[in-house]
Write a structure and sequence with these properties.
With 275 residues, the chain is an alpha/beta fold. 23% of the residues lie in helices and 22% in strands. It contains six helices and 15 strands. The strands form four sheets. The protein has a five-stranded mixed beta sheet with strand order 1-8-9-12-13. The chain has a five-stranded mixed beta sheet with strand order 7-6-2-14-15. Helix 3 packs across helix 5. The structure holds manganese (II) ion. The site of manganese (II) ion has 7 residues, from loops.
């Protein structure tokens, strides 16, 4: 386990919630200068590969990718996304923190009792064609991810739903819950979804925190935090942040794969917090 990766320096390309949008991921990687090949063929958007492709990725100028999590659910090609991300992490070309969807997907793979809702039903259907060995490898991959990463001399933190300053560099049940779900109250709204608050409005740390989890129309820095989930699976865009350049790049979704119940915006501040 290594949450503390302060000795790892960039440059990094940090990618938002993919949610099974494999074509858009390949397009974004190409835009960032990565070359993905399966067998001896370059992978182009829209192409399906064989059941067990030999993937190879070449990265530009020793850059590495960091995925903010939520690789799975709702989108059309969750197994292909997992194959590519697991390959890149295994080859030392990427880091990945888990999202709440990845965690629930892992529990489903391990035979636990979970509801097939919020896009897990889509992933479950797509996984029917996959081998038992692949399913085991995926569960093991998700299970062994650290819930946040502290990088670049402490200047950069990546966590799926964000993190409180006091949790940076620590590991606990509270830290894990926050990194996966954000600032939740334990209550649910009229759609049955957890009530959330905008923790970023209360962040005052020196480390930049890059996260996803909350689909928003346009990434905007707030107190040294940046959400880069631009809702690709909901017909938005898939976005990357180049670090340390702090440049944003994105590709348009090719379709609206799922309908959004909540509005595309940050949750409200906790009562009494100015915004
Ligand atoms: Mn998500």
């Amino acid at each position: 386990m290594a949450i503390d990766r302060r000795q790892e320096h960039g440059p990094f390309d940090i990618i938002g919630d993919v949610h099974g949008c494999y074509d858009e991921l390949c397009e974004l990687l190409a835009l960032l200068g990565y070359k993905v090949t399966a067998g001896d063929r370059e992978v182009t958007a829209g192409e399906r590969h064989e059941a067990a492709p030999v993937l190879e990725v070449s990265a530009p100028d020793d850059r590495r990718v960091i995925f903010v999590g939520d690789l799975v659910d709702r989108g059309p090609r969750t197994p292909d996304v997992l194959r590519l991300v697991m390959h890149m992490v295994g080859a030392g070309q990427a880091f990945c923190v888990p999202g709440n969807h990845d965690d629930k997907f892992r529990r489903w793979l391990q035979g636990r009792k979970v509801k097939l809702t919020h896009g897990l039903e889509t992933s479950a259907r797509q996984m029917e064609h996959e081998t038992a060995a692949f399913k085991r490898a995926v569960a093991e991959f998700i299970d062994s991810r650290d819930t946040h990463l502290w990088l670049d001399d402490g200047k950069l933190v990546v966590a799926h739903a964000g993190i409180l300053e006091e949790y940076i560099g620590t590991s606990s049940g509270k830290e894990r819950h926050f990194c996966l779900y954000g600032d939740t109250t334990g209550e649910r709204d009229e759609h049955g979804l957890p009530i959330r608050y905008n923790w970023a409005a209360e962040y005052h740390g020196d480390a930049a925190i890059i996260y996803g989890h909350t689909p928003i129309p346009e990434p905007r820095w707030l107190n040294n935090t940046l959400c880069i989930d631009t809702g690709c699976v909901f017909g938005g865009r898939l976005t990357a942040l180049r670090w340390p350049e702090r440049e944003l790049l994105s590709v348009e979704a090719k379709d609206t794969y799922a309908r959004r119940i909540r509005p595309f915006s940050h949750p409200p501040n906790r009562p009494g917090v100015e915004g």
